[in-house]
Fold this protein.
Amino acid sequence: MRFTFGSASAVLSLLSFAIAAPNTGSSQLYPVSDPRSCGTVEIWDEAVEELIRPRVAAIQASRASGLQKRASKNVPVYFHAITKGTAVSDGVLSAAAISGQMKALNDQYAGFGYSFTLAATTTTLNADWFSNAGPSTSQQDAMKAALRKGGANALNFYSVGFESGSGQGLLGYATFPSSYSSAPYDDGVVFLFSSVPGRLGPLISKAWQLTVKLEGGATANYDQGKTATHEAGHWLGLYHTFQGGCFGSGDGVADTAPELTSASGCPTGRDTCLGGGVDPITNYMDYSYDACMTGFTAGQADRMSAMTAQYRGL
């Protein structure tokens, strides 16, 4: 989106507004279900859990004894931007927007055992994939078959529009590490292009006019790049924090408080299960707004480490 003004004071006024106001009224805005909607299919697999529990226990014992510190595993990233035209609202992501998403990903996983390196980017003009790719669709199958790169250790991102079909209204969805061996072509993360971090672009002077370009995310409440972080969490082996509700094994992580249902917004003090503490609304694996999410737990980091060692060779 571009704004053109005849005076520097008008530009400064716009900058003040753009910094203070939510990004809700631009042509880039793609409506999503609010609260957050993730299309990742989560089926508890006890056979997987039986393999992972000893690995998690060994990791935790080693760290507790001081013999092992949390090492950072580097993940190569292939970023595939799918578009339906040439405008920003058509899914076009600049190099700066992709760089911003990579920075957000690395910042948000810092201290939790992972770093991410951009291996390559592609841009593909395909209106059908952009609009209709979603869970279990022929469009997402064709998209991944044509574009996916690397092995089990390589994270492939596909940014799309989720305009119709099974993906309509989603922010994203992902595959789990244990699924790779049976369907390697399906592996990766599909997410809404306008959820990448928003940023103010350059001021351009031309014929005594200044132009401000707003680049990157434009989906209100989900424009800090944390959708990719959430979906990458699934790709690394994490369930939602509300998996299983208040009873049973939950998300398979001991230090995330039980949660009956997903959170929305940032409901501080919310407590939907008796005992265990308040709901983990600030966790990247809940459904809170981006501004509310702040991190993972140590137990989640241990689970990711165990899952990726078992299934992704990391």
Confidence is low (pLDDT under 50) at residues 1-31, 208-213.
